[in-house]
Amino acid sequence: MDTITMAMEAARQAGELALHRFRLPQEIRRKGPADPVTQADQEAEELIVSTIRHVFPDHEFLGEEGHRAPADAKHLWVVDPIDGTRNYAHGVPFFCTSIALAERGRIVLGVIHDPIHKETFHAEAGKGAYLNGQPIHVSRKTELEDAILAMSLVPARQVGNARVALPMLVRLQPMVESVRIMGSAALHLAYVACGRFDVGFQDSIHAWDVLAGVLLVQEAGGVVTDLVGQPVSTSSGDCIVANSAGFHRAVLRAAQEALAERKS
After folding, report:
1. Which one of 31, 101, 236, 252 is at 20 to 30 Å from 62 when CA atoms are compared?
2. Taking the model in full, what pTM does it have?
3. At residue 36, what are phi and psi to the nearest 5 degrees?
4. Domain ranges of the chain
């Protein structure tokens, strides 16, 4: 079994575990303010880690539910067992499993599995992006007024909230056709990669939220940076994704204005 096949299988198994427990009574605790974690989150991460470690015992893991490793590790698996935990915990059917592999900081593999809709997105560096085995590409829209913008609003009381998403939304909402806030950063990025959404940004996130989606967008022909225009890495806390350089410039401009406003 090659690496991408193994990663896809691990994501599917974790997704099936989450789906089996979905809307059933289970323990929900909070890691911090407005930051829930379910029993399924923890079990799914352990399943992914054990599956990969069985094949690659010397690889390291960075996971939402407790696995920590240096960002510059030679082989670093970045895992979000259930991206969209708030949706999941409240019975909202929009969540996924996200797995990325970084080699000395370079993202080389990404998988996002949506068990509700039975959709598996995957990408390998230099090999394109795929949905259920079929090639995908970003949209070809050229006018921002026709664009669907995807974003997240992190709870204001959550530690680390940079408070730039709302000022960005105020600037961008009049420019686009519509805005979607669906509660899963990974699926937002996957939807940009396959052309369902056209542009998006995420504020106050972690590597496990977006690394797989970053590679998907790049391999599907899109543009990805952080909010100041730098490449997204394992240490990034935000990102902009777009189908084109033109759409990216518009969001980057809004981000720069919002960041400047926060400092003033």
Report:
1. 252
2. 0.93
3. -80, 155
4. 3-136, 144-263
- 206-261 pLDDT per residue, tens: 888 999 999 999 999 999 999 999 999 888 889 999 999 999 999 999 999 988 88
Q: Which amino acid is at 158?
A: Q
Longest dimension (CA), the chain: 54
Place domain 3-136 in its CATH homologous superfamily. Answer: Fructose-1,6-Bisphosphatase, subunit A, domain 1 (3.30.540.10)
For 154, the token pair is 């992190």
DSSP assignment, residue 28? E
Q: What does the block give as tokens for 137?
A: 């590409």
**Residue 88 corresponds to which amino acid?**
Y
Length in residues, the chain: 264
- Tokens 């056709």 sit at which residue? 177
141: which residues sit within 8 A by CB, 6+ positions away? 147, 198, 243, 244, 247
One CATH from 2.40.340.10, 3.40.630.10, 3.40.190.80, 3.10.310.30 for 144-263: 3.40.190.80
DSSP strand pairing (148-151 vs 199-202): parallel
Residue-wise pLDDT for 164-207, tens only, equals 888 999 999 999 999 999 999 999 999 999 999 999 999 888 88
